[in-house]
Specification:
This protein is of the alpha+beta class and 555 residues long. The chain has 21 helices and 21 strands. Helix 4 packs parallel to helix 8, helix 15 crosses helix 16 and helix 17 runs parallel beside helix 18. The protein is globular. Bound molecules: glycine. Glycine (GLY) binds next to loops.
């Protein structure tokens, strides 16, 4: 008994000592007309510039996305893909502009060719970024398209000062790039650009100007398409002109679920994000987690267990043609009630591994931005090249970084992995299909009014992070910034590990979690989130994660 009391006192003292630090990391802004949270000040400036010129939130978001393709080529490029949730007066729509598998690819492509789904030309999926931005413009745009490209063209042509993140993303990697990439992203002696130095991208300016004049046309059938095909081919890839010509975005209904009094909208398949968030939210409600003390051992334990249970069927997910029976299985009230009954509040429960399961390794890159205005309009957009600089292949003529999104497919079906498990069949490589994703652009409403929008970087950790921010902001009374900065855990069912953030969990907490059966692994950080909200007094608020570089601003 005395031992238990001492432990609780130690935990309490720790919390008292460290909790005040979280608000001290404040990164939030409050504005009246429009608020933006994202990875870069250039994005924030572009959004403000376009909004000031009379553009709407969607125009501004397109301009911002294009600036990221210049300033953040390690996460975003004209050769990447992504998802967006967009809200205007007629409701919320989800846009899928994720990459597709080239027509020459079959499920055994990588087994047969021994090519890598992670590096070089065979890693490249047919990019959707440009088609995605054009689709947003066509559906929601108010300013002429050509105006939206101006901020990005200026940044690529005049150059911009690189940050510490740029150095971390390039240092020691020059040899991974093809020649074209090496010439653009490194000094002529192969050394990386240092923080404070200028980078210009003259070839990219040409591509952006062509897109400015001819929208997506030349990217999918014309000069830029030829450049992509030639470069991919020279690096042993198989994207054809037909693949580019046939690329189509998809407008989808968001995956919608109730979380307490809130209505949450997130990304449906081919993202696993919305489904896993919905499962976790329902399990949290069932287990009444919001009655637990914030940052208590019981709360961390339950969060870990709920995430593990919620992630379990991810291995069965994919770009499904008929998802209805699966959704019933994963999301029905009955199945979740049965699942929740198996969660113990005191001990880790090891559910058996589902048939066809592989603990799939995903990259931790990707980025996100959220924008909201005082008219109740929202853009929540997640963009990704998959890995850092994607495939490390950069097109020769226009300097476009190409993704390595093919690695998000299960590329070796039928082949047992290191645990002797067989990969999930629904995410195998099929021509024209999209790989499974974790990207979770999310919007929350209460009684039809927008409350918040958010998303994060970081592969499957995106889902765990979005969930914990929602929970802390909506149910635990933390302000937006505190909810974003709060420590996080991550569990994805396999490996059977509870990931915790370095220096944010005292040894006593970890040892008590171990006692409950958790195998703990420490990570530097668990994702980076970018969130916006409308407060009760009507002010707009934006917060970005102090775990990395970012910016929040507005008008
Ligand atoms: N490539 C990261 C994701 O789609 O989840």
């Amino acid at each position: 008994m005395i031992k238990t009391i001492i432990i609780y006192i130690k935990v309490l003292l720790y919390c008292l000592a460290f909790l005040p630090l979280f608000p001290a990391l404040a990164q939030s802004v409050q504005t009246q007309k429009i608020v933006i949270s994202g990875p870069s000040t250039h994005l924030v400036s572009a959004v403000k510039e376009i909004y000031r010129e009379g553009g709407n939130i969607f125009d501004a978001a397109i301009a911002g996305a294009f600036t990221l393709s210049v300033t953040h080529p390690y996460f975003v490029s004209l050769g990447c893909g992504g998802f967006a949730l967009l809200k205007n007066r007629s409701g919320i729509k989800a846009l899928d502009f994720r990459e597709t598998a080239p027509s020459k690819m079959t499920e055994d492509f990588y087994v047969k060719t021994k090519l890598s789904p992670r590096d070089l030309g065979a890693a490249v999926g047919v990019p959707g970024f440009v088609a995605g931005q054009w689709a947003i413009h066509q559906k929601y745009g108010s300013l002429p398209w050509s105006r939206l490209l101006n901020p990005a063209i200026k940044l690529a042509g005049s150059g911009f000062i690189v940050s510490g993140q740029w150095l971390r993303r390039t240092q020691g990697l020059s040899k991974k790039f093809n020649l074209s990439g090496r010439r653009i992203f490194f000094h002529s002696d192969g050394t990386p650009y240092l923080p404070g130095q200028f980078v210009r991208q003259d070839k990219l300016v040409e591509a952006l100007r062509l897109i400015q004049r001819k929208n997506k046309t030349l990217f999918y059938n014309g000069l830029i398409a030829q450049d992509i095909i030639k470069t991919v081919k020279a690096n042993k890839g198989v994207i054809s002109l037909e693949d580019l010509k046939n690329y189509r975005v998809r407008w989808l209904q968001p995956l919608k679920f109730k979380f307490g009094a809130y209505q949450v909208f997130s990304m449906p398949l081919p993202s696993s994000g919305g489904i896993i968030l919905a499962r976790a939210a329902k399990l949290m409600e069932q287990k009444k987690i919001n009655q637990m003390t914030l940052y208590s051992i019981s709360e961390w334990h339950l969060l870990g267990e709920i995430l593990s249970f919620a992630f379990r069927p991810r291995s069965q997910m994919g770009d499904l043609s008929s998802p209805a029976p699966y959704l019933e299985k994963w999301l029905s009230r009955r199945s979740l009630k049965k699942l929740g009954a198996q969660i113990s509040l005191n001990k880790v429960k090891k559910l058996p591994v589902l048939k066809d399961t592989l603990p799939h390794r995903e990259s931790n890159e990707t980025t996100h931005f959220s924008i909201m205005n005082n008219k109740g309009e929202v853009v929540s957009m997640t963009l990704t090249l998959n890995g850092n600089f994607g495939s490390f292949v950069v097109t020769d003529k226009y300097g476009i970084v190409l993704n390595n999104q093919m690695d998000d497919f299960n590329t070796y079906p039928g082949k047992p992995n290191q645990f002797g498990l067989i990969q999930g069949a629904n995410n195998k490589v099929r021509a024209g299909f999209r790989p499974l994703s974790s990207m979770s652009p999310t919007i929350v409403e209460k009684q039809g009014k927008v409350v918040m929008a958010l998303g994060a970087t970081g592969g499957p950790m995106i889902i765990s992070s979005v969930l914990q921010i929602l929970y802390r902001y909506l149910f635990k009374g933390l302000n937006l910034d505190a909810a974003v900065q709060a420590p996080r855990v991550h569990h994805q069912f396999l490996p059977r590990v509870l990931f915790v953030e370095k220096n944010r969990f005292p040894p006593i907490v970890l040892s008590l979690l171990r006692k409950r059966g958790h195998k703990i692994k420490v990570r530097d950080s668990i994702a980076k989130a970018y969130a916006v909200s409308q407060k009760k007094d009507g002010l707009l608020e934006g917060a970005f994660d102090a775990r990395g570089e970012g910016a929040a601003g507005g008008l």
